[in-house]
Amino acid sequence: MSKLTKNQKVALSKIEAGKAYSLAEAVEKVKEVTYTKFDASFDIDVRLGVDPRKANQMVRGVVTLPHGTGKQVRVLVLCTPDAENAAKAAGADYVGLDEYIEKIKGGWTDVDVIITQPAIMGKIGALGRVLGPRGLMPNPKSGTVTVDVAKAVEEVKKGKIDFKVDKNGIVHSSIGKISFTPEQMRDNAREFIATLIKLKPATAKGTYIKSIYLSSTMSPGVKVDTKSVEA
Fold first, then answer.
1. How far apart are the C-alpha atoms of 138 and 117, rounded to whole Å?
2. How many Cβ atoms sit within 10 Å of the Cβ of residue 15?
3. Angstrom distance (rounded) from CA 222 to CA 1
4. pLDDT of the residue at 2
5. Sequence-separated (6 or more) residues with CB below 8 Å from residue 118
6. In three state form, how does the secondary structure of the chain look?
């Protein structure tokens, strides 16, 4: 086990062991225990009462955060020539088709999101081995395969993110930056949790939101009182 740094020890000392904080308290606590010199990510981890091995309990969706993610999202649009100008006008960083497909085959993946059209998916299928492990494969469920690529670009740039429960039943996502105001952080967290609640599978029994933790890059997690958030 690695030794704790001085800052890590101080951070842990400020979090009451076993205590579940209200969302407002948890946000303030995360800001208080973050000691990074850079603008750390603001993260959320939610454990759900689902069995991801069952297809009818898979939780996956998209959410547009009220205050965005705070990150500069690099977007590649793979589309037909007639849609290129609209994609560029919407703010896409890279726009094209065959030349970028060849670059990706060569290992280039210097983007955060790839958006494409349904008619193009036949060409992109061969890129699955490169894009799949990096979470970059376009998917209709996440809104990255669409006929309106310009709208998709605008949504991603404004703070639209997609998420998916992992094999342990946990949804993890970055939902902002530590430089955000407490109000912005609370708004983003509430929107994310509200979206998860709306996506509760009909087959999920018992407690759905089992636990919520907030944290920042390299900070300890702060437990949130689930009842206060659900209310």
1. 9
2. 19
3. 21
4. 59
5. 140, 145, 146, 147
6. CCCCCHHHHHHHHCCCCCCCECHHHHHHHHHHCCCCCCCCEEEEEEEECCCCCCHHHCCEEEEECCCCCCCCCCEEEECCHHHHHHHHHCCCCEEECHHHHHHHHCCCCCCCEEEECHHHHHHHHHHHHHHHHHCCCCCHHHCCECCCHHHHHHHHHHCEEEEECCCCCEEEEEEEECCCCHHHHHHHHHHHHHHHHHCCCCCCCCCCEEEEEEEECCCCCEEECHHHHHC
d(CA 172, CA 215): 11
pLDDT tens profile 140-195 = 988 999 999 999 999 999 999 989 999 999 999 999 999 999 999 999 999 999 99
Q: Can you tell me the distance from the alpha carbon of 96 to that of 156, in angstroms, rounded to the nearest whole number?
A: 18
State in Å, rounded, how far the first CA of the chain is from the last one: 39
Q: Cα–Cα distance between 17 and 36 in angstroms, integer? A: 22
pTM of the model: 0.81
Q: For 65-96, how does the pLDDT look when each residue is reduced to its tens digit (9 = 90+)?
A: 999 999 999 999 999 999 999 999 999 999 99
Q: Please give the pLDDT value at position 1.
A: 44
Q: Is residue 23 within 8 Å of residue 190, measured between CB atoms?
A: yes
Name the token pair of 134.
């990096």
